[in-house]
Every structure is written in structure tokens, then in C-alpha cells.
Specification:
By secondary structure, the chain is an alpha/beta fold. The chain folds into 2 domains: about 250 residues, Spore Coat Polysaccharide Biosynthesis Protein SpsA, Chain A (Alpha-Beta Complex), CATH 3.90.550.10; about 130 residues. The chain has 13 helices and 9 strands. The strands form 2 sheets. It has a 7-stranded mixed sheet, sandwiched between helices. It has a two-stranded parallel ribbon with strand order 6-9.
Length: about 425
């Protein structure tokens, strides 16, 4: 049965629209059925020129022999690229960077993701609406069958990305992604990981470059024969997160240049992740404040009141610096001193609010019990903390890295109806 999926665009004869890459490593028992099923699905549902690329990166079990037979059976539609070194990221970089297709995609060889999501994945890229597209298993509309432990690990990992890198996408590791070729040409040279962290690093760079990431809820079925080393991969991912964060803080990744060159805007900050990071910084600096006060008291070099002010001021300076660089991702040195002044001013505001609240309480209820006084001080502190959060959040906008919109409108199409920047890349 043929399903009509015409989105209203026309391609020039011979233009390769989609290149689907299937990375394989010792998949001799699954690659045949996978490619045959994928080929049938594309033939029935995708009305534009496409290709399936088997990226064999270091197989030793006969996968290459089966792949070669598939190439012979589907001449002109299936091709085989063999790499000597292992690594899913390495395979994708090698194939994507040399593909002549308008849109490049990949999916895992086990086809855990239902192929019905393939057209919704690539259509926004073909129309020019989005720059990347990912399948997500964590959307409420997704239907996922997998073990509790893997579900827990996946959700913790993606929540960690939101906290550590301010990521706004929901599922970094789902093996079902697509990207426009012109965008891939800009981002792939910057991706340092050649293994499983490749996906995450690519998405973080895209988001920091102001690119639009389209998410597709998927039906996903866990492969019981998965050979992924969960612990080893998790450790590699943690190292990758730290490396990318250091690079972003140092300005070593030219995301601003890419954003200006492609003509996109910075995505809006993720308030949930900011609140979590803000609270973590607050807890840490509270411990530093109390510890500093205790040390100064033990040394006996100043009175308790002075020790408290000194320790609190030092903790406030550290709090401002951490919130500036970590919570709100302000990497420019511009305005650093002014931000510290604002942090100390908010400290003064906290004192004024709490002292003023106690004064009002004393006038209204002279004999107020300690519990009521404590609640009053707490309310004043909370009010000052809320003010502090929104003042610091504004630093991103002042720093010029958070325009009001996530992405610009879709770009105009050429005479053939294809988005202007979505043609086959040149110089390949």
C-alpha cells in the first residue's frame, strides 16, 4: 500500500533528498532484516530520492559480507562504507560529512524505534522549519517498552544535561536523528567525541548556536540483546559533559560565529534547570558562609558580628561568580565587576527586608514568639532570593546571548520549492 506523504515541495531531478545511515558493529544476524525492512518502508512512504548507507565500523563477524550482498540486491539505493576504527560517532561523522544528500539521518541497526516516526522526523528539515530533528522516548505521547533501570538512567542523564549544560532537548541518546546537510557541515568539525557522546555533543552545539531542534515522540522497544556497556558509557558521558562545559566557558567553541553565519538566535534559557542550579549554588555557599564563620570564630581574630559579615560577604562573592558562570551561562567577562556589585547590593537588600520585617512585627506584635519571628525572617529571605534570581537571570539578556525568540521564521524556498540553505552542500 502506498501512503501519500507529499508535503508540497518539488525537487530537481537527481537531487538526493535523504541519506539514512545505519551504523553497525558485528551485526551479522540483524543487518539484513533491518535494511530490508527500512528499504520497504522508504519505498512505500518516501516519495523523494533516498539512499541507505550501511556504516560498518570495524566488524569482524561477517557483517561486511551481508552488507555487500544488500548493496548488490538494491543497486543504487543501498551503499556500504567500511571504516577500520570503531565508534558510532566516528562512523556518522565520516558518512555525514561526505554525503551529497539534503538531509542526513541515522538509526540504530536493531530498529528499536518504530519507522512510522521517520517521515515526521525529516519533513521539518526538508521544509526549512527546523535544523535538526530527534526522536524522544521521554515525551508523554511516546510509547516505550524497556526495563526500569534503563528508564531511570536515561531520565537521570537527560536531567543532568539540563542542570550541567542548560540543555533544552529531552532525549539526547535516542538512536533516531536527522540533520540538514548544510548545518552538519558547520557543526561536525567541532564535535570531539567519536563514540556514544557524539549525539549529546552535537545537540548541545546546535542549541548553543541557536539552531531549532524538532522533537518527535516515538514508539520504542528495548533491544534485549543490547551490548552497550552502560557503566562505561555513563562514565564517558560524564567526562564528555565536563569537557564540553569547559570548552564553552573558555569560548573555545565558535557557537556565536555559527549562529551569526547561519542566521539563528540563541534558544531561551531553561528556567527549570536554572532554578535547580541556583538552588545548588545557594546550598553550597550557605555551607561556605557557616564554615567561614566558624573558622573565624575559632581563630578569635574578630567579634561574632564582624565574622558573620566577612564570611557572608565572601560567600556572596562566590555565589555570584558561580551563578554567573554556571547557573546562567554568562561566559563574557564584560560586566563581571558590576554583577558582583549587584550581588552585594542584593545581600544588603536581604538584610533590609529581614530587619524591616522584624521591625514591623515588633511594632505590631511586641511579644511575638520565636517561631513567628523565624517565619518572618524566612519570608524576607525568600523574597530577596526571588529578586536575586530574576536580577541574575537578566544578565544573560544584557550579555546579548538570550534574544526573545528561540528561532527565526522558516526561510524562503527557491524556484523549486526547496529552502534556500537546504540545497546539497558544495565543495564536498
Amino acid at each position: 500500500m502506498h501512503i501519500s506523504t507529499d508535503p508540497g515541495i518539488e525537487t530537481r531531478p537527481g537531487t538526493l533528498v535523504l541519506d539514512v545511515v545505519v551504523p553497525v558493529l558485528n551485526e551479522v544476524h540483524t543487518i539484513g532484516a533491518c535494511v530490508e525492512r527500512l528499504q520497504r518502508h522508504l519505498a512505500d512512504t518516501f516519495p523523494y530520492p533516498y539512499r541507505i548507507t550501511i556504516a560498518d565500523n570495524g566488524s569482524t563477524d561477517g557483517t561486511g559480507r551481508v552488507a555487500a550482498e544488500l548493496v548488490r540486491r538494491h543497486t543504487g539505493v543501498v551503499r556500504l562504507v567500511q571504516l577500520a576504527e570503531k565508534g558510532r560517532g566516528r562512523a556518522l561523522k565520516a558518512v555525514w560529512s561526505t554525503s551529497d544528500a539534503m538531509v542526513v539521518a541515522y538509526m540504530d541497526a536493531d530498529l528499536s524505534t518504530d519507522l512510522g516516526a521517520l517521515w515526521p522526523l525529516v519533513a521539518p528539515l526538508m521544509s526549512g522549519h527546523s535544523d535538526l530533528a530527534i526522536g524522544t522516548r521521554l515525551h508523554r505521547a511516546s510509547r516505550v517498552v524497556r526495563g526500569t533501570s534503563r528508564e531511570f538512567i536515561s531520565r537521570c542523564y537527560n536531567a543532568g544535561l539540563s542542570v550541567a549544560l542548560g540543555a533544552g532537548f529531552t532525549d539526547a541518546q535516542c538512536g533516531f536523528k536527522a540533520i540538514r546537510a548544510d548545518v552538519a557541515a558547520q557543526l561536525l568539525p567541532l564535535v570531539g567525541d567519536n563514540a556514544w557522546f557524539f549525539d549529546t555533543e552535537l545537540l548541545v552545539l546546535a542549541e548553543r548556536s541557536g539552531l531549532r531542534i524538532h522533537e518527535v515522540p516515538v514508539d520504542w522497544y528495548d533491544d534485549p540483546d543490547s551490548r552497550v556497556d552502560v557503566v562505561g558509557t555513563a562514565l564517558d558521558d560524564i567526562r564528555g559533559v565536563l569537557r564540553v562545559r569547559r570548552s564553552l566557558r573558555r569560548g573555545a567553541l565558535p557557537v556565536d560565529e555559527i549562529r551569526a553565519r547561519i542566521g539563528r538566535t540563541m534558544p531561551s534559557a531553561q528556567t527549570g534547570g536554572q532554578v535547580i542550579r541556583f538552588a545548588a549554588v545557594g546550598a553550597l555557599t550557605t555551607v561556605l558562609h557557616l564554615g567561614g564563620f566558624a573558622v573565624l570564630q575559632v581563630l578569635g581574630i574578630m567579634t561574632a558580628q564582624i565574622a558573620n559579615i566577612v564570611a557572608l560577604a565572601a560567600a556572596t562573592v562566590i555565589n555570584t561568580a558561580l551563578n554567573r558562570s554556571w547557573t546562567f551561562n554568562v561566559v563574557s567577562r564584560r560586566g563581571t565587576l558590576w554583577h558582583q556589585v549587584q550581588g552585594l547590593a542584593i545581600l544588603g537588600l536581604t538584610w533590609l527586608l529581614t530587619a524591616g520585617a522584624l521591625a514591623v512585627l515588633g511594632a505590631v506584635w511586641p511579644g511575638a514568639p520565636t517561631a513567628v519571628q523565624t517565619v518572618t525572617v524566612g519570608v524576607g529571605t525568600i523574597a530577596a532570593t526571588v529578586v536575586k534570581f530574576f536580577v541574575m537571570r537578566r544578565w544573560r539578556r544584557v550579555d546579548g546571548v538570550e534574544p526573545p525568540e528561540r528561532a527565526e521564521a522558516s526561510e524562503p524556498a527557491d524556484a523549486n520549492g526547496i529552502p534556500a540553505s537546504c540545497g546539497a552542500p558544495t565543495g564536498r
